[in-house]
Design a protein that fits this description.
heterodimer, A: alpha/beta, B: Jelly Rolls, six-stranded antiparallel sheet, 15 helices, 21 strands, 48% helix
Chain lengths: 310, 610
């Protein structure tokens, strides 16, 4: 499949590049067991959020592991910052959050960040400063002295994010970043990803949660059975051509009827005028925020219209 | 103590050892590269396979050379934290328990309690430290790979070599701390356990004439403590020694005299229990019963031919030649110490030792001293001071007093002749059994040196465990490491067995290789019985040789931890030679380096996230 990037601006520096990258898992005797990834060509450019989307077993995590040099390609090559993925020095500029936050359970949050900071050769003062800031950022200040074995899944995920950012990386690779998080955590994670982009970082994430990918990604690649099925900018891929959407606030029923009449006069078909639905995520977040703002009182029914003012 | 081979000087040892090491490492590298090339060639063709192997070797070497001490220490700290959080210190409680049981069950009345306690404590320390670090080492990395925590490490700028070295270093630090704690408590236990005194009262003594001082001395026995008492001989002033019993003596001093004129005595701490003798050893040759030179003594049928025997009442003699004898080193004379074993062809008076003589001779002029009588008491080290002024036997039969160093030492060399006087009784000796006591080292230093031997074993075990854990799961890695150490343990036997198999000389190791041994077990055939050379037996021997060849090869390069042990020296009361320690240190460094590099390549070749 050819690349369909139609960005009008001058293409930014390519951070990640794969050429004919494929992976076949073999058994002990070298017999082919599973084709996890068929030849894949991808470019990820500096400053974008790139999403790998696909059902379970589509080859998303395999692709990330190949980019990280955790597994070796059967054919083709993966370049990160222009270097082979197996080159350790590229890791200086990478932050990685694995699928399950695989961390050392016998360490506490501070020790964890101190350990990973040491692996980057950071000096003690810088390690302390970064660790404190990241623990604060992921909201684990009160639990920083507890061993990770006592952490809930969400807390483990948060410390996982903190370790991925300990070196202030240029490229952040997130494997299922919202898995195991509650809606608030999910929103915070998405805000964090967008914030990373705002700070000029490149983010590659994979997820099978479509809403998450849609909310944050600039470009996505859809994988299925190890094969690239779709690649492009999110808004272009999701744009429904032939349908026009008009949104407004403060429209009276009479005005709405007028609008309908105008549309009909111009030959429009399948006209739908009504109140849009909010998302369950937005509803949930609204309820939680309201409860926190007015403790002990029943949450107010959020006004869907006002919450969707554009 | 038994010393089957002479300890070479480090300078003489290191050259050939280094050559052997480099040759083994080179052959092993070539073999591994060949196997890797064959495996790669199956899927990728010979040229691409060669390219991959070459790149792999280069990448591995680059990895080893680009190690960052900071990251290694970070990973070592992690290994230490992991060990502590896994309650490794429980092993100290186990050690304390062992000390407790040792206190209860080790017999302080044994022949040589010092040897017993030291040997036991060092063996327990060795076992615990090596086992704990080996278990930690083999299970750590596989657990990380299984829990995938390793993925968050390898996606940082960490080289494979740093992961392997960090693990080795971390567990080595844990092992070192355990060893230090156990070593110190073990030392305190040994010193406290062997320390004892006796009481000696005036009524236990009876007077005897003291010829030298011309006044009455006294003789008697101390109280019975720890299952033994000492015969005491005191001079006229009341000072003297409690004679050797259970490998030690005590100094006796007068502490006061009562109004009735009765003396009170103090018996000091044991002397000779915890010592570090520095022996100057010589070379041994024999004369047969007719007085002709012989390379060996008589075998009395002992299967282990360490000691050779000389027949009593004949011209047979065991002759040691000592070199480097100077009056500066031995100003008082030559302090000869000896262990003489006895083989009796008739029982005689079993309470009495077997009588013999010692002579010293000038190796050039054959001038010889008068015969100095000895009585061989088995299992104890007898000492004899050969004085500076000594009588020599003149050709015409008279005696003449000469200076030991001027007349009997030639170019720093002197001969010591041992002969047995009693007909039909035999003296058994080995080269290491006679030595000149050139001085004493400190027991504490010697104990520390022995702990250093345990430390070497621990380092090798740790590196070996980490190496196997890079490509095997924890339990399998543990079995593999133990199997390797076991083969190393029996490396000399395997070497002899292989020689026996190849040369067909069944006297070296009777019974044949594994298949032949199995056949003999099943058919209940004695190992000394030669099998008829039927085609089936011939085929069996060929299969045995094929099976033994890789074992022989493996045995040649696998480490033998017991050979690094120096507790025999310590328990026997001998200073551990620096040359031996240096050789062991070099051997350890060689093994650790080899296991480290092998571990790096194994981990590098592995997809740890697959």
């Amino acid at each position: 499949m050819s690349q369909s990037d139609t960005a009008t601006t001058r293409p930014a520096e390519v951070v990640v590049e794969t050429r004919n990258l494929s992976k076949v898992y073999r058994d002990f005797w070298g017999r082919s067991k599973k084709t996890a990834l068929k030849p894949l060509d991808l470019d990820v450019r500096r400053g974008e959020i790139f999403g790998l989307l696909g059902p379970n077993g589509a080859g998303k995590t395999t692709t990330l592991k190949l980019l990280l040099g955790l597994i070796f390609p059967t054919s083709g090559e993966a370049l990160v910052f222009g270097r082979p993925a197996t080159d350790v020095s590229k890791n200086e500029r990478i932050g990685y959050l694995p699928e399950e936050s695989y961390l050392y359970k016998f360490l506490d949050a501070e020790e964890t960040l101190d350990f990973y900071g040491r692996l980057f050769g950071m000096d003690p003062e810088e390690r302390r400063r970064r660790a404190a800031a990241l623990i604060e950022m992921v909201g684990l200040s009160r639990d920083r002295k507890r061993q990770l074995r006592e952490y809930s899944k969400g807390m483990t995920r948060r410390i996982g994010v903190a370790q991925a950012l300990i070196n202030d990386p240029e490229l952040v690779i997130l494997d299922e970043p919202t898995s195991g998080l509650d809606p608030i955590g999910t929103r915070e994670m998405k805000d964090l990803i967008i914030d990373l982009k705002a700070r000029g970082k490149t983010v590659i994430m994979c997820s099978h949660l479509l809403a998450d990918v849609e909310d944050v990604c600039d470009r996505i690649a859809v994988l299925h059975q190890g094969e690239l099925k779709e690649l492009g900018r999110v808004e272009e891929l999701l744009r429904v051509t032939g349908v026009t959407q008009i949104r407004a606030t403060g429209l009276s029923p009479a005005a709405a009827a007028d609008v309908r009449a105008v549309l009909e006069r111009h030959g429009a078909a399948d006209i739908d005028i009504g109140n849009p639905r909010t998302t369950l995520e937005d509803l949930f977040l609204e309820v939680v925020r309201d409860t926190e703002a007015r403790p002990g009182r029943r949450a107010r029914r959020p006004d869907a219209a006002s919450s969707r003012v554009e | 103590m038994v010393l089957e081979e002479q300890i070479p000087s480090f300078a003489a040892w290191i050259g050939p050892a280094l050559l052997r090491y480099l040759a083994s490492a080179g052959i092993a590298t070539l073999l591994v590269a060949l196997v890797a090339w064959l495996v790669q060639a199956v899927g990728n063709g010979p040229l691409a396979a060669g390219d991959r192997v070459y790149r792999g070797l280069l990448a591995g070497l680059a990895d080893v050379l680009a190690i960052s001490p900071r990251r290694v220490w970070a990973l070592a700290r992690l290994a230490i934290q992991e060990s502590l959080r896994r309650n490794v210190l429980v092993v100290l409680a186990v050690f304390a328990l062992i000390l407790l049981f040792a206190g209860w069950f080790l017999d302080p009345a044994s022949v040589n309690p010092g040897r017993l306690y030291v040997g036991f404590i060092l063996a327990a320390t060795n076992l615990l430290v090596c086992l704990v670090t080996l278990v930690l080492a083999v299970f750590s990395l596989p657990a990380d790979i299984k829990s995938r925590a390793i993925q968050t490490v390898t996606t940082k700028p960490v080289r494979t070599a740093e992961i392997v070295l960090g693990r080795i270093l971390g567990f080595a630090v844990v092992g070192t701390c355990l060893l230090a704690l156990m070593g110190i408590s073990g030392w305190a236990f040994v010193v406290r356990s062997v320390s004892h005194g006796h009481t000696l009262e005036a009524r236990d003594l009876f007077s005897l004439p003291d010829v030298d001082a011309g006044q009455a001395g006294s003789e008697g026995r101390t109280s019975l403590d720890r299952g033994h008492r000492h015969r005491v001989v005191l001079d006229g002033r009341g000072d003297g020694m409690a004679e050797t019993a259970q490998g030690h003596r005590h100094r006796v001093t007068v502490t006061g005299t009562s109004e009735s004129g009765e003396r009170s005595f103090a018996v000091g701490e044991p002397i000779g229990l915890l010592e570090a003798r520095r022996p100057l050893r010589g070379t041994l040759r024999f004369l047969d019963r007719e007085g002709r030179a012989a390379t060996k003594g008589i075998s009395v049928g002992a299967e282990w031919g360490y000691r050779q025997f000389i027949e009593g009442g004949t011209a047979a003699a065991a002759i040691w030649t000592f070199e480097g004898i100077t009056p500066e080193e031995f100003p008082e004379g030559l302090p000869l110490e000896m262990i003489v074993r006895v083989f009796r062809t008739y029982k005689g008076d079993i309470e009495e030792g077997i009588h013999g003589t010692i002579q010293v001779r000038n190796p050039t002029s054959s001038l010889r001293s008068e015969s100095l009588p000895i009585v061989a008491r088995e299992f104890t080290i007898d000492s004899l001071l050969i004085p500076r002024r000594i009588n020599t036997v003149l050709a015409e039969g008279g005696l003449q007093e000469v200076d030991l160093f001027r007349d009997l030492v030639s170019d720093g060399r002197i001969e010591v002749w041992l002969q047995c006087l009693e007909p039909a009784q035999y003296y058994g000796v080995a080269q290491a059994d006679f030595y000149l006591r050139a001085g004493d080292g400190s027991f504490v230093t010697n104990y520390a040196k022995s702990c250093l031997g345990i430390w070497f074993s621990m380092l090798i075990g740790t590196a070996l465990g980490v190496m196997f854990s890079t490509f095997l799961s924890g339990p399998v890695a543990l079995v593999a490491a133990l199997a390797m150490l076991l083969i190393g343990q029996f490396r000399e036997f395997i070497a002899r067995l292989f020689t026996s198999q190849v040369t067909g000389d069944s006297s070296i190791v009777p019974g044949g290789g594994p298949i032949e041994s199995l056949y003999r077990i099943v058919t209940q055939t004695s190992i000394t019985l030669e099998l008829d050379p039927t085609p089936a037996v011939q085929a069996m021997k060929v299969i045995d040789t094929v099976l033994l060849a890789p074992m022989r090869l493996a045995a040649g390069i696998f480490p033998s931890l017991s050979s690094l042990g120096t507790s025999d020296f310590l328990a026997g009361g001998f200073d551990i030679p620096g040359d031996l320690l240096a050789a062991h240190a070099a051997e350890t460094a060689g093994y650790v380096l080899a296991f480290f590099i092998a571990g790096v390549f194994c981990l590098k070749a592995r997809e740890i996230a697959s």
